[in-house]
Model the fold of this input.
Amino acid sequence: MIAAAPLPPLVCLDPGHGTPPAVGRQLEPIGPGSRTLKIKDGGGAAGEAAVALAIARRARRLLLGRGYRVAMTRAGPTIHLGDGDGNIARARFCNRRHAALMVRIHADGSTVRSLHGVSTLVPVWHRGWTDDIYARSLRAGRALQKAVVRSTGALDRGIVRRADLTGFNWANVPVVLLETGFMTNPTESRHLRSGAYQQRLARGILRGIAGFAPRGAMARR
Ligand SMILES: [Zn+2]
Done:
């Protein structure tokens, strides 16, 4: 008898935004059972949705080339997940696929135009919401942040723990959110819109994921 080969890890890529405004302004609970409601999608920084998608597509190509399985919450300009098309839907989409890691891809915005650099957001520990994914998400976040800073040479803004992200609190799989740079910084915005820089970001994402979820290893449950 020959044992079935284990499936390679599945990476769930979640390019931020791309929500129709009428859906984006709807409210959803920030965590299971929570009475705190938050809008689904404020739209992000100007140009962010397209940049996030371009980086995700490049990361997908690199991951597939290394033998990973990849799912994307959106592969075009607009999200079509059903299930409310909010951050709950994005998390559930990745949960259903038992992703080894959910990587949310965003770019920052600020009224302070000099701000620049890369940060990685991870969930805080919250009993019943993130207790099962907290440690692995933090480990993945550190691997991703380090690899992306190395591949881009961008300023390292570090790891940021967030309690208020719906897409974290509904996730049952390890989850991180990469802020790839500031759309509001003139220099970084130019980089973020260039194919060459997007490719460097994608390579960093691949290396970070490879450090957290080696291709040869089963996803840890
Ligand atoms: Zn965003």
